[in-house]
């Protein structure tokens, strides 16, 4: 196949939730006017309908786990920047799908890093997670020594370390962002294993109770997706961001029960909570964003009620999605009963 003459920004996982917002932000950003956008997604959790209709956009259905396919893409397209968002981000489930987790979140990432180094990519932007920190370290700060407690966080930290090694060995420029508990339009509300805001909204419009693990006092800072876009898409153009790691997201923690109450108020329903056995998870998780603010400017922080309203408007228009079971459970021992079948 002849090499495409255009110069591209590659966005992996671009048909997914966070990736589709990065796609839109790049296409709207004047700094990328001379570039086309190449979206690579295996559609395991994303949807082609999440992508905008734009003449500068090319979509390829492929998996980052397939090294040969990734190498072929870098040969066919001249790729200047990489935004790597493809991942299976079910943190709690990762204990029970360890091989799948490392293949998709670590080996797939290494395939991209290899191709980026060989192709002299100008900048590699990676979305990691505050899962790298583990528990008992709030507010989480970049200088905190990582201590991930689940395979998902371990895989994300390993990719961060591999990027640092690729820079040290080959000079590959990169930036790492650690987002957390992101919600908003284009989220896969039919995924029962992750994205609690989406699960709550999907169950409300399906007239089902809201599943809450444990007593619901777990605290998270829920981040509206649009608030993350400025630093992420700006990273290749900000010298101070080169080879740095940034927390990005909301700063105000709320409990899962409070989140349920806010979501139910938006839909004008009384909370109907289904309390399930507690999972083995970090109880309190939110981070400090002063480093990100100092480099990219003070971040927007959409109030939870406003972000929930915007997402709910989209959910009402889209309607419910059927929850799909994960078909490749590797360890059944300790799997929450609600995740069976």
Tell me about this structure.
With 341 residues, the chain is of the alpha/beta class. It is built from nine helices and 14 strands. The protein has helices at residues 17-28, 67-76, 98-118, 151-170, 196-205, 229-234, 256-266, 290-296, 304-318, and strands at residues 7-12, 36-41, 57-61, 78-84, 123-127, 174-178, 182-183, 210-213, 219-220, 223-224, 244-247, 254-255, 273-276, 284-285. The strands form four sheets. Strands 3-2-1-4-5-6-11 form a seven-stranded parallel beta sheet, sandwiched between helices. Strands 12-9-14 form a three-stranded mixed beta sheet. The longest helix has 21 residues, at 98-118. The termini are far apart. The model has no long low-confidence stretch (mean pLDDT 94).
Multimeric status of the protein: single chain
Question: Topology as H/E string?
Answer: EHEEHEHEHEEHEEEHEEHEEHH
The SS-based structural class is: alpha/beta
Q: How is the largest sheet built, in terms of strand order?
A: 3-2-1-4-5-6-11
Low-confidence stretches: none
Distance between the termini: 43 Å
Rounded to the nearest angstrom, the radius of gyration is: 19 Å
Principal-axes geometry comes out as: globular
Count of alpha and pi helical runs: 9
Report the mean per-residue pLDDT as an integer. Answer: 94
What is the helical fraction, as a range of percent? Answer: 25-40%
Number of extended strands: 14
- Beta-strand percent range: 15-25%
Largest sheet: 7 strands, parallel
């Amino acid at each position: 196949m002849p090499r495409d003459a255009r110069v591209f920004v590659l966005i992996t996982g671009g048909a997914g939730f966070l990736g589709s917002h990065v796609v839109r932000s790049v296409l709207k950003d004047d700094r990328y006017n001379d570039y086309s956008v190449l979206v690579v997604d295996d559609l395991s959790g994303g949807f082609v309908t999440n992508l905008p209709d734009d003449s500068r956009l090319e979509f390829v259905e492929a998996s980052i786990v397939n090294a040969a396919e990734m190498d072929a893409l870098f040969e066919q397209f001249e790729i200047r920047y990489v935004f790597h968002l493809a991942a299976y981000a079910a943190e709690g489930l990762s204990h029970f799908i360890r091989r799948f987790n490392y293949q998709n979140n670590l080996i797939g990432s290494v395939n991209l890093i290899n191709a980026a180094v060989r192709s002299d990519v100008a900048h590699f932007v990676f979305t990691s997670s505050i899962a790298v920190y583990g528990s008992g370290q709030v507010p989480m700060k970049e200088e905190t020594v990582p201590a991930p407690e689940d395979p998902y966080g371990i895989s994300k930290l390993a990719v961060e370390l591999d990027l640092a090694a690729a820079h040290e060995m080959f000079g590959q420029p990169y930036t790492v962002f650690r987002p957390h508990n992101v919600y908003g339009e284009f989220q896969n509300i039919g995924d029962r294993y992750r994205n609690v805001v989406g699960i709550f909204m999907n169950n409300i419009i399906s007239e089902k109770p809201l599943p809450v693990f444990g007593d619901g006092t777990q605290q998270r800072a829920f981040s509206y997706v649009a608030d993350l876009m400025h630093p992420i898409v700006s990273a290749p153009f900000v010298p101070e961001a080169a080879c740095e790691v940034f927390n990005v997201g909301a700063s105000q923690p709320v409990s899962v029960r409070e989140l349920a109450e806010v979501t139910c108020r938006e839909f004008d329903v009384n909370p109907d909570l289904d309390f399930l056995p507690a999972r083995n998870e970090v109880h309190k998780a939110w981070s400090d964003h002063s480093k990100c603010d100092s480099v990219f400017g003070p971040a927007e922080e959409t109030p939870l009620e406003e972000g929930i309203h915007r997402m709910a408007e989209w959910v009402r228009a889209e309607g419910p999605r059927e929850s799909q079971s994960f078909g490749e459970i590797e360890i059944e021992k300790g799997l929450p009963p609600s995740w069976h079948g």
